[in-house]
Amino acid sequence: MSQNRSVAFHTLGCKLNFSETSTMSRQLELEGFEKKQFTEQADVYVINTCSVTENADKECRQLVRRVQRLSPESFIVITGCYAQLKPQEIATIPGVDLVLGAAEKFNLVQHLSNLTKGDETKICSCDIDTLTGFHSSFSVNDRTRTFLKVQDGCDYSCSFCTIPMARGKSRSDTVTGVVKQAQELSEKGVKEIVLTGINLGDFGKGGDGGKHHEENFFELIKALDNETAIERYRISSIEPNLLTDEIIAWVAESKKFMPHFHIPLQSGSDAVLKLMQRRYNSQFYKERIELVKKLIPHAAIGVDVIVGSPGETEAYFQESFAFIHSLDISYLHVFTYSERAATKALDIKPIVPIAIRNERNKILRNLSYQKLQYFTEAHRGENRKVLFESVKKTADGGMEMLEGYSDNYIRVTIPYKAEWSNQIVEWTI
């Protein structure tokens, strides 16, 4: 391995996975590895997998076959949530050399130094219940925006979800650690940090051998607001039962935390929420949305919804649709339910046929489009601060464009101006 000095990464799934891939990439670059695109020939290919993405096994096998056609003598490493959940299954995929579970992904350099091509697939996994450490990570594609992981794992037991089995118990960095990391990113020219985690609002637990920090998410955002030079922060996603009045009120007055929330709902039917083992009902969720809009009328609110989960009858779906339609929200992320091994949802009946799941997905995506159009139109003519990104985009016709987001997450695209790259500009929507 000492002579093999190039590596390529491919990431499936969430922003947290992208932040971890970015950190692994930097670790290897510090060891002298040249970073390549996944479509180029490299000595090592690392695939960071997801357990939420549908057809994880199929995607993984397709990527491995692609690598084998491109560079048959290269090493192939599989890590991430799917690698933790199904290591033996992955090891049977022809061409895979190394499978790294949740505790080993950040020891990639060490494992590569002990790898020999042609040996039996090496599996380095762990009992997820023994995983107590926290490893900070962040992704930087350009200097504009970075996704900073401050929390990992989840103590919840939603009936449809494998995340606790893939990532372990909730644990996090310390407030001091996050503030230090944010300051370092500020010195690198980063203008906006998106705080990420599996259950972000549960920040404050563990991460140092299982000890509790006796800190919470509200203390974290106050410290970042008051003690760092970063100009903009976003909260990536926070459970409604953890989005407290004091957090909403703080964001309403903050100059740094953007008026933008992403609040998972999953279903607007109380019967389905109960089957999902969620920790709130529709009335509580509605009150959260109403408080945000009362204190921050211009705030963007994104919502996660799952359609077609077991037990979601047509009546329950219509109830969910009507509830979501009534909410003053900005957009939806719609997920079609898919079966996950070892989850409680497998025992729930009736099962919704795939065709109906897909139809419900289309219905809610159409509602999302309407919500986003209405939200954007409501702000037409307003002056809002837009952070333009550092990278050029190419529009139809080949014109170079610059893209950015307003404080309340309205996407703005303009003809490319170099002087506005990575700059916050007052812009009329």
Question: What does this protein structure show overall?
Answer:
- Helix 9 (245-253) packs parallel to helix 11.
- The protein contains 13 helices and 19 strands.
- Strands 2-1-3-4-5-6 form a six-stranded parallel beta sheet, with helices on both faces.
- It starts with 5 loop residues before the first strand and ends with a strand.
- The chain has 429 residues and is α/β, with parallel strands linked by helices.
- The protein has helices at residues 15-30, 56-70, 81-85, 87-91, 108-113, 163-167, 175-187, 217-227, 245-253, 270-276, 282-295, 314-326, 354-378; strands at 6-11, 34-36, 44-49, 75-80, 98-100, 122-124, 137-140, 145-149, 151-152, 171-172, 192-196, 232-235, 260-262, 300-307, 331-336, 383-394, 400-406, 411-415, 424-428.
- Helices cover 34% and strands 22% of the residues.
- It is globular.
- The chain folds into four domains: 6-126, Rossmann fold (3-Layer(aba) Sandwich), CATH 3.40.50.12160; 131-258, Transcription Regulator spoIIAA (2-Layer Sandwich); 293-377, Transcription Regulator spoIIAA (2-Layer Sandwich); 383-428.
